Amino acid sequence: MKNKFSHLTAKEREKLSYPARLLLDKTLLRGKILDFGCGFGKDVEILQSKGLDIQGYDRHYFPTYPQGKFDTIICFYVLNVLMLEEQTKVLLEISQILKPGGIAYFAVRRDVKKSGFRNHKIHQKPTYQCNVILPFQSVFRNENCEIYEYQHINHLIHEDGQSCIFCNPSKDMELIAESASVYAIYDKYPVGNGHALIIPKRHVENFFDLSLKEHAALFFVLNHIKTQLQNLFNPDGFNVGINIGEKAGQTIPHVHIHLIPRYAGDIDDPEGGVRGVIPQRRKYK
């Protein structure tokens, strides 16, 4: 579900937004910078005048999608005007255009009293506002605003003693994309080009022990990654598989979904597909 009037909450300003001033004063705006959801672009204009290497993207006002990756990404008051699926898509997109080791800052409103649609006073259109809580480190909060700091999960410092490689992913694991509760990487031992793993961040061994919300989050990311792999590798099909339990071939006791692109001729006879986990039963006989 989309909020088609989300862009109507953008405001005309003559000075830097509060989150931009705060991050600038703390010298946290570094390197190549992107303002994701920049609205009318005032922050971009002022920060460029101060010598910062920054560009803006907004699907309504500056719709040219950014190319390359960025050291710092700012996303101010965007998530508050989006439905949950749109919020997740923004997180996934930002994770993909952030450089390894880079940092993204999400500013969200803390003065929204009630989530839902309301008629915009000026535009007279139903605009949406909601409260947003992210599972990232909070670096600032007052009664009106909270700023979260996001880094790729495989660039975070994790607690000592975590033996699970999916709870403590290393930097050499190539991240594809990441949402608030799920991330995707390329398999270290791929069975074909683009073999990806979709992994919940919470440590759960058995797929059936995940919550309904976690199931939905996993399959939302699965669909997103499928689109990415289709564009990158142009496969002819896919296998989607989950190993549950040692006897079913699960070797890492943390839920993960295999998304395997398939190509014409990658095996002599693909008949039966996932039935091939029991080779003698692969054929329909």
From TrEMBL:
Residues reported to bind substrate: 258
Highest taxon listed in the record's lineage: Bacteria
Segments forming domain HIT: 162-269
UniProt entry keywords in alphabetical sequence: Hydrolase, Nucleotide-binding
One Pfam family recorded for the sequence: HIT
Motif (Histidine triad motif): 254-258
Nucleotide-binding is among the record's keywords: yes
GO molecular function per UniProt: hydrolase activity; nucleotide binding
Entries under InterPro entries matching the protein: AP-4-A_phosphorylase (IPR052908), FHIT (IPR039383), Histidine_triad_CS (IPR019808), HIT-like (IPR011146), HIT-like_sf (IPR036265), SAM-dependent_MTases_sf (IPR029063)
Catalytic residues, chain numbering: 256
Protein name: Diadenosine tetraphosphate (Ap4A) HIT family hydrolase
Species for this entry: Cecembia rubra
